[in-house]
Amino acid sequence: MSRNIFKSKRASLILIGVLSFYIIVSASSPAYAMHIMEGYLPPSWAVFWWVVALPFFVLGLRSLTRITQTNPELKLLLALSGAFTFVLSALKMPSVTGSCAHPTGTGLGAVLFGPLAMSVLGSLVLLFQALLLAHGGLTTLGANVFSMAIAGPFAAYWIYQLIMRFSGKQKIAIFFAAALGDLLTYVITSVQLALAFPAPVGGFIASFAKFAGIFAITQIPLAISEGLLTVLVWNWLQSYTAPELEILKLIKREPQTNESI
């Protein structure tokens, strides 16, 4: 058992190192696009989304504290989930003015640790990206946290639970959790932008249709790609971090057979 734990920790450290290398390299390139960029939202809406997001962050801190105190050996897997979210959400392409399209990477962590834990990890990712990569902003952090670190992970978690309950097919559940959690993030972003900038003709509905329609062009293929990538990472986790997944009750220990001497 101890050998398996050492193997899983070493594999987790290797993956975190690879992701960290990517972050260092990509951080040196200019950032031309954002989540919702700094100063783009009117002050009233910026404050509103901060107020909405803060309670989830507080509850998420309590959830993370409970996880790390009960099972300290899960800290590396938590770090890996955060690094996965950082890297995927940093792969951005320009979209609607004042925003961008990119994978989110929050579905994996939501399945592993639940949506409240991801509200903290996702918030830290968005904060670091705003400060280090000029990707997002501090005034719009509340809005970005709500869409990517709260709404997306909650959707991913419940989609995973629903598919597992009715089909029991874990990889299919993980694919749809990651893909649909990604898409819902951009549905919420479209709602946020439409509320802040209703169309002169048609109001909120027309504005939402415009934002969501533009996002869909890039985000639907990105969501499918994220779902497939998340399944590949899950396969890797099953091979190298099986003890941690057993603790999280996401896989069952295979029964050991006693060989006769």
Automatic annotation (TrEMBL):
Q: Where in the cell is it found?
A: Cell inner membrane; Cell membrane
Please provide, in alphabetical order, the Gene Ontology terms of the cellular component aspect for this entry: ATP-binding cassette (ABC) transporter complex
The biological pathway it contributes to is: Cofactor biosynthesis; adenosylcobalamin biosynthesis
Q: From the Swiss-Prot or TrEMBL record, what is one GO molecular function term?
A: cobalt ion transmembrane transporter activity
Membrane found in the keyword field = yes
What Gene3D superfamilies does the record tag this protein with?
A: 1.10.1760.20
Q: Which UniProt keywords apply?
A: Cell membrane, Cobalamin biosynthesis, Cobalt, Cobalt transport, Ion transport, Membrane, Transmembrane, Transmembrane helix, Transport
Q: Which GO terms describe its biological process?
A: cobalamin biosynthetic process
Membrane-spanning parts: 12-33, 45-64, 76-93, 113-134, 141-160, 172-199, 211-237
Subunit notes for this chain?
Answer: Forms an energy-coupling factor (ECF) transporter complex composed of an ATP-binding protein (A component, CbiO), a transmembrane protein (T component, CbiQ) and 2 possible substrate-capture proteins (S components, CbiM and CbiN) of unknown stoichimetry.
The record's function comment reads: Part of the energy-coupling factor (ECF) transporter complex CbiMNOQ involved in cobalt import.
- Recorded family membership: Belongs to the CbiM family.
Q: What is this protein called?
A: Cobalt transport protein CbiM
* Organism the protein comes from: Cylindrospermum stagnale PCC 7417
Q: Which gene encodes it?
A: cbiM
